[in-house]
From TrEMBL:
Amino-acid biosynthesis in keyword set: no
Origin species: Pocillopora damicornis
Superkingdom of the organism of origin: Eukaryota
The protein's name in its UniProt record: UDP-glucuronosyltransferase
Keywords (A to Z) from UniProt: Glycosyltransferase, Transferase
Molecular functions (GO terms): UDP-glycosyltransferase activity
Coiled coil: none
Protein family according to the UniProt entry: Belongs to the UDP-glycosyltransferase family.
SUPFAM superfamilies membership: UDP-Glycosyltransferase/glycogen phosphorylase
């Protein structure tokens, strides 16, 4: 699994390098970009750093995650390893001495791996095109005018930040939800006072979750008394209970804002985690890959989620977990408290 993951990461960096080479060779595009005063780019758009340096345009970087996430090392963000967990370690800010040692090793390993990958793919391009030869790619990336994080300390571990490094909150969550389509509204209204649950496992769930496990999910959803709105593509179980509505796409933030929502069964991607907290909805976290495991651990630490292993869970465990987060007062208390904090901070 580790070898496959490393190969996938290398392929992603290689894809970025190929795209970047096309951009650097596109003289028409570069000429048009010279008229801009600022480049705002997402953290994994590595080529934006080279374009910014080549054209002498100031840059602002946006991280769609917390300041201790992957890719943050080049930006001089303080990472005290005694209480800031390294990416994907599943530690919290409360670590034992042994966990701190492991965290120190993980932090240095991930930082070194990032430096190797950047040097191999982006650093080589920087040298080839003779872009600001006096500094490395990491040094160039670290000169961003602003570093913005789509996160908030209401749902993150305490971490020092330097001037120009700013948490901007849950911007993917809608303060004013849109009206639901009539068929969804009618389905929710037919819940008979029990409310409804939504289930969504991200864009690539069908490539990770086996058909047998999808059948387990269907069985579990059929056991709960709430209506279930399930985002699902690809394989659809043949026998679904009447309380389940399968859709290829759902208005997730609008549904989370609905007054009758009871729980969210989620892979806990970053946006899903923040949207559920913003709207005060308890979560059954079923992480599938990458940062989702850290997100699930964080959601559990902050008291808004119960975590299940998608490989080993059965229908009974999942249905009981859904009912547990709905009925257990401590989940409701925590999500309401978090929602209040995020709403206040977002609208300040």
């Amino acid at each position: 699994m580790e070898g496959k993951l490393w190969k996938t990461i290398n392929n992603l960096y290689e894809m970025q390098r190929v795209i970047c080479e096309y951009m650097l060779n596109d003289t028409v595009l570069l000429q048009e970009l010279k008229s801009f005063d600022l480049i705002v780019y997402e953290s994994f758009s590595f080529c934006a750093v080279l374009v910014s340096e080549l054209l002498g345009i100031p840059k602002v970087i946006v991280f769609s995650g917390p300041p201790n996430g992957p890719g943050t090392f080049a930006h001089n963000i303080p990472h005290p390893v005694s209480y800031i967990p390294a990416p994907m370690t599943l530690f919290t800010s409360e670590m034992t001495f042994l966990q701190r040692l492991v965290n120190f090793g993980a932090y240095n390993f991930i930082q070194s791996a990032e430096q190797v990958l950047i040097a191999r793919y982006m650093g080589s391009l920087k040298e080839e095109y003779n872009i600001t030869p006096g500094k490395s790619y990491q040094e160039a990336a670290g000169t961003a005018e602003l570093v913005l994080f789509l996160a908030d300390f209401a749902l993150e571990y305490p971490q020092p930040l330097l001037p120009g490094q700013i948490m901007v909150g849950a911007i993917s969550a809608k303060a004013d939800p849109e009206t639901l389509p009539p068929e969804l509204k009618d389905f929710i209204d037919s819940a008979g006072g029990h409310g409804f649950v939504i289930a969504s496992f991200g864009s690539y769930a069908q490539t990770i979750i086996a058909k047998e496990k999808i059948d387990v999910l269907a069985e579990a959803f059929g056991k709960v008394k709430q209506k279930v709105i399930w985002k699902l593509k690809g394989y659809i179980p043949s026998s679904l209970k009447q309380n389940i509505r399968v859709m290829s796409w759902i208005p997730q933030s609008d549904l989370l804002a609905h007054k009758d929502i009871k729980a969210f069964v989620s892979h806990v991607g970053h946006n899903s985690l923040y949207e559920s907290a913003y709207h005060g909805v308890p979560v059954v976290a079923v992480p599938l890959c990458t940062d989702q495991f850290s997100n699930a651990r964080k959601a559990e630490h902050f008291g808004l989620a119960k975590v299940l292993d998608h490989k080993t869970m059965n229908a009974e465990e999942l249905s009981e977990a859904i009912q547990h987060v709905i009925d257990e007062p401590r989940y409701i208390y925590r999500v309401i408290s978090l929602s209040s904090e995020l709403l206040t901070l977002t609208h300040e």
